[in-house]
Structure formats: C-alpha cells, structure tokens
C-alpha cells in the first residue's frame, strides 16, 4: 500500500520519488468562530475530512503525499470572537513558504495548496506565485470548494451564506455530527443581504469592502443553517473529493 503521509516516509524514500508523478499536498485550515452552533475548528476539520477522502480514493498511478495539516491560519476578521486563533499575514506567508522550501529540497516539484478558509485565499495565491518564481515548480492554490456545483441551495446562500450557513453546517453534520449544537441552529440572515440592494457595488461581485465578522451578523455566522442536512453534507464532501482527485490527475499529467 502506498504511503500517503509525509511523516510516515523515511528520509531515504524521498530520493526515489518521481517528480512528474508526485504531488505534495499542503492543507491549510483555520481556527475561528463559526457562530453559536458550530465549533471553532470547522475549517480545519473540513479540510481534514476532504483530505481523508482524497487519500482513500486517489488512483495508484498518482503519488499523493499529504503534509501535516496546518490548522491555524490568518483569521483576523474573526478576532473579536473568543476562541479564534489567528496568525499575521506575514507569519502565515513565511510559514507556508518555508514549509514549501523544505518540500522542494526533495525531488518533489508539484505542490497542491489545499485551503479551507476563504479569508486566506488571496494570501495563498501570493505565496504560490512566489514559490513558482523561486523554485520553477508547479504550485496550485485552491479552495476545497472551488469546483463543486452550486445547485443544492438558492443563489443567496452561495453569495451571502458564507460562514456557518447551510454548506458548512451540512458538512459538519456529515463529518462531526456530535459537535453540532442543534439548539442553536437558525437562519443567520446577514446584513449584506439587505445592504446589497442599497449598495450593489460594495456588496456585489465587483469591489469587495474589507469586513469583520460582526459587520455581517452579531453572532458571527451568516447563512441559513436550518436547511442543512447530513445527506447534503455527504454529497458536498464527495463532490469536493472527486474534483480534487481530477485536479491531481491534471497536475500529474502536466509537464514541468
């Protein structure tokens, strides 16, 4: 059985890795508030769940090696809620760069940066470009939800239910149902839903104003958690896993 976890390899095994067929997976989560119904570890838990599915189903012709999950990231927009753990932008960038530098000291030349927190997506893209420039490697930053279909819920849930809404609640019902506080599940109607009518450019798909979580809802969550089901969560997780495996296949086929 192939070894899929970086820490399980011995030091001499790395020299035998095929640079063309090997992809290292750096998973980046976050520890941040997700309202009264979900734990602060949602982002880290979800990316672990998706990663677990990937490694169980990855084809034998792909050598996918997962680095240890990085559970803490940049979550400054949630810092006014207890339980949030956040690093500065500079620290996060240095952490990711230096880990990647260690990866590229081996024969590995392909890196998937699998992100689970929207608040650090832009940071991941900047780091990926820097790594490409310095190491001439294939570096792909992606959110685990990037390729999934947006068909389970109404459009407003995808545009405004960004945090602790239907999707994240459904996924937690699937992956960690014991950690969901059912008594606190409700429709967290975000301020942005109403404000988007009055300020369509500030809250639309163009300009993006900088916001803090409390700007969108006093309890920190946004979206309708009441419509979430375990079945939806399972479907979302499977879609994410399938899309990431397809991405890995393209990365392996891509010539560097």
Structure description:
With 256 residues, the chain is an alpha/beta fold. The chain has one domain: Creatininase (Rossmann fold, 3-Layer(aba) Sandwich). The chain is built from 8 helices and 6 strands. The strands form 2 sheets. Strands 2-1-3-4 form a 4-stranded parallel sheet, with helices on both faces. It has a two-stranded antiparallel sheet with strand order 5-6. Strand 3 (110-115), helix 3 and strand 4 (138-143) form a beta-alpha-beta unit. Helix 1 packs across helix 5 and helix 5 (166-175) crosses helix 8. The chain is globular, with a radius of gyration of 19 Å. The model has no long low-confidence stretch (mean pLDDT 95).
Map the helices and strands.
Layout: E1 22-28, H1 42-57, E2 63-66, H2 89-103, E3 110-115, H3 121-135, E4 138-143, H4 155-160, H5 166-175, E5 187-188, H6 191-198, H7 213-216, E6 223-224, H8 230-253
Parallel strand pairs: 1-2, 1-3, 3-4
Antiparallel strand pairs: 5-6
Mean pLDDT comes to 95
Beta strands, count: 6
CATH top level? Alpha Beta
**Beta-strand residue percentage:** 5-15%
Radius of gyration: 19 Å
Structural class: alpha/beta
Main β-sheet, spatial strand arrangement:
2-1-3-4
The main pleated sheet reads as: 4 strands, parallel
| Low-confidence blocks of residues | none
Shape: globular
Please indicate the count of domains.
1
Could you tell me the CATH topology label.
Rossmann fold
Number of helices: 8
Give the SSE string.
EHEHEHEHHEHHEH
């Amino acid at each position: 059985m192939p070894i899929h976890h970086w820490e399980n390899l011995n030091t001499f095994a790395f020299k035998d890795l095929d640079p063309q067929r090997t992809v290292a997976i750096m998973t980046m989560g976050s520890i941040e508030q997700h309202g009264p119904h979900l734990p602060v570890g949602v982002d880290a838990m979800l990316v672990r769940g998706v990663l677990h599915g990937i490694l169980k189903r990855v084809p034998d012709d792909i050598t996918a090696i997962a680095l240890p999950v990085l559970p803490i990231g940049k979550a400054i927009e949630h810092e006014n809620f207890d339980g949030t753990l956040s690093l500065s932008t500079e620290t996060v960038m240095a952490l990711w760069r230096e880990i990647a530098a260690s990866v590229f000291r081996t024969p590995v030349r392909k890196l998937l940066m699998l992100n689970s927190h929207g608040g650090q997506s832009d940071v991941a893209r900047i780091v990926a470009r820097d790594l490409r420039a310095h190491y001439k490697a294939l570096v792909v930053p992606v959110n685990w939800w990037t390729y999934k279909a947006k068909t389970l819920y109404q459009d407003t849930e995808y545009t405004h239910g960004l945090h602790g809404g239907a999707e994240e609640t459904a996924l937690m019902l699937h992956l960690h149902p014991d950690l969901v506080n059912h008594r606190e599940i409700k429709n967290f109607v975000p301020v942005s839903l109403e404000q988007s009518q009055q300020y369509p450019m500030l809250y639309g798909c163009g300009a993006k104003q900088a916001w803090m979580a409390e700007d969108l809802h006093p309890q920190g969550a946004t979206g309708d958690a009441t419509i979430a089901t375990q079945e939806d969560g399972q479907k979302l997780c499977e879609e994410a896993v399938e899309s990431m495996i397809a991405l890995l296949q393209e990365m392996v086929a891509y010539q560097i």
